[in-house]
Amino acid sequence: METLSERLAAVRERISCALRKAGRAEDSARLVAVSKTFPAEAVASAREAGQFLFGENRVQELATKVPVLPQDIEWHLIGHLQANKVRAAVNLATWIHSVDTADLLRRIVRIAEEENRTPRLLLEVNVSGEASKFGMRADEVEATVSACPTPLLCGLMTVAPAEATVAELHQVFASLRKLRDSVAAATGHPLPELSMGMSGDFEIALAEGATIVRIGSAIFGHRDYPAGAPG
Ligand SMILES: *Cc1c(COP(=O)(O)O)cnc(C)c1O
């Protein structure tokens, strides 16, 4: 049985390898270690192994971990955010990947200003159009950026369908990249970040231009409840 630090090193090596294969610079993608459902001790071990970026999908779980872990950790909220938890989220997270409506974007921007915080924000896009998924439609992204061109907004995020083939995964990730290119061109708003790729598909996402991969089970091990559980 590998240790957490061995699994983390193996994931880092696979990321480097995928970037090299794609002709990309070694430092052109960030690894967010997704620690949802795992105890603070597991985060502390990964932090000791040199991992500083962690992702959680529920504000409540984030709120229990942040105060008991080192201050130098950068927290990423990656799960659906309810309107009544925005204030807590902007005070706990440095990044919010799951901005899935124009209303939520405006609300986060207003509350971040009140709280004197500058979270980096990504619009979550439901590229494949699955009914069960959070995220705005691809055709809503340009209007959302135009209506609220905040400097906090720095890119797009997607979750690929769990059952997709390799060819379909390439297509989903390439679609997010092309959507980013076209929205950035149309609005003049730079959107350099593409948050895409999880344990099962991150190498494909890196080949298609991911700048942030969100990896949980390949680092922390198997989880007993579903990846997309809202919170
Ligand atoms: C849980 C989760 C991940 C990580 O999933 P793994 O398959 O464990 O790597 C990534 N992104 C989101 C939005 C998640 O909810």
Named CATH architecture: Alpha-Beta Barrel
Q: Summarize the helix and strand pattern as letters.
A: HEHEHEHEHEHEHEHEH
Task: Summarize the main sheet.
Answer: 8 strands, parallel
**Tally of domains:** 1
What fold name goes in the CATH topology slot? TIM Barrel
> Beta-sheet strand percentage?
15-25%
Q: Report the uncertain regions.
A: none
Query: What characteristic shape results from the CA principal axes?
Result: globular
Q: Could you give the distance between the termini?
A: 32 Å
Assembly state here? single chain
Mean of residue pLDDT? 95
Bound ions, cofactors and other small molecules, one mention each = pyridoxal-5'-phosphate
| Rg of Cα set | 17 Å
Look at the helices and sheets and give the structural class. Answer: alpha/beta
The helix count comes to 9
